[in-house]
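call fold(seq) -> tokens
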Amino acid sequence: MEYFGLQSQIRKNNTNSVLILLMFPVIFAGLTWLFFFFLLLTRSHSAESMEGQFNLMPSVNYGFLHTIPWVTIGVLIWFTVAWFSHSSMIKKATGSKPLSRNDNKRVYNLVENLCISKGMTMPQINIIEDDSLNAFASGIDAKTYTVSLSRGIIDKLDDHELEAVIAHELTHIRNRDVRLLIISIVFVGIFAFLSEMLFRSLRFGNLGRGKKGGSAGAAIFIGIILALVGYLIASLFRFALSRKREFLADAGSAELTRNPLALASALRKISADPTIEAVQRKDVAQMFIENPQIGNKKFTVSASSLFATHPPIAKRIEILEQF
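ret:
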């Protein structure tokens, strides 16, 4: 693999991440337009009206322009709720609890020294009571930024390796990666919610009787298909975003500690046992330094898999060893 320099890697990953993030609103707008297109196309065919088919596009655009503001308002409300409740959700999903300075001065000193070196406000430190090796960063601002470490990663890494892992997580905070990931998780969650809601309406709403019922049923069916398509596409973007931010955080750790081999060594140890039993949600799993749902290698993911939450550790180590 050709080595192209730390700053080049940071610029490349930042550009790609922004492009991926911009695709989310494009998906929403595109699928809303397609909903009206297919719905009105179905109605025009059922009425066998050539005139209706010729006038399809103005009707589609009219429906889209009058609906997209309400879609936007709904998305903003969803975002607001998710934005302010994400911290409690993440703590509950990971079982993480606050770690005080008196509980572990070694960890606090490592975090504090790294923050001082970059003029950062020190984040909260949480611990996950699990003997496996993993860590993640979360939060949306200085008041909520948190670095969470498993008991295993604290006990089983030496100071240089643990410092490199902490630097990796601090880089996520410095680069606002945690914000980007939360936004991507919210987008995917919206599509998942819409799919489930529409499916339940189609299943339990008894919409198959009568002309109006058939029309409503067709609308819900089209909505389900498009919501599932949106969920798939948004998930692919979310996974791609997560993978790219991991490479960037690795590069940031190397820059911060001036010791890329320490992170490479830590990643080797983490890859042997990253599983955190408390983590059951894939959207939360993507926040960790390595997927905590691997399950002792029961599930293997190829390097080119579009559905991988993280890039292969072997590839990450290879890049780090080139610094």
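The mean pLDDT is 79.
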